[in-house]
Amino acid sequence: LPQLIGIKIPHREDGTSFIGSVHDLFPNARFIHIVRDGRAVALSSLERLEREDTVVVLDTETMTPPSQDITKATTTWAAHERSTLAERSARNDLAYFRLHFEELVNEPEGTLRRALEFLGLPWDGSVLEHYREPDGRSRRLGLHTKENGAVDATRARHWQASWGKAHDGYV
Prior knowledge:
Layout: H1 19-25, E1 30-35, H2 38-50, H3 70-90, E2 95-100, H4 101-106, H5 108-119
Parallel strand pairs: 1-2
Helix pairs in contact: 2-3
């Protein structure tokens, strides 16, 4: 089996993508870019700032918390997406697979089968129970409670309850 490395945060502080740098170091690397609806990302970012258990990373220029402005949140998401797509376009030899979060939560098995095929890995149904130990016990995977259970398709639409008509022009 190939060696696997996962990088969750694909952007530098200035918003540029890490894909080119990683590809320079690992020319045979394969990239799976998970894309979520920009409205969901923006609202999730703002909701995360409102929770008490959130560690806030200060803006390095102003030393203030990130903006709680929906316009800035959606603009940042769009800039990150443009940066990643520009890196992809600039490199013809880049092995790249774009996976939509909404497709992943609504059709997990089919989507994961395609992702594993892209990576050259065999299908294993246990990927659908990523939150379980081999003996069936629950496993804590990360800080986010949503990582520690079965895929919940309602998460793909969760943002819609908070998105009002006033926000429609932002994405």
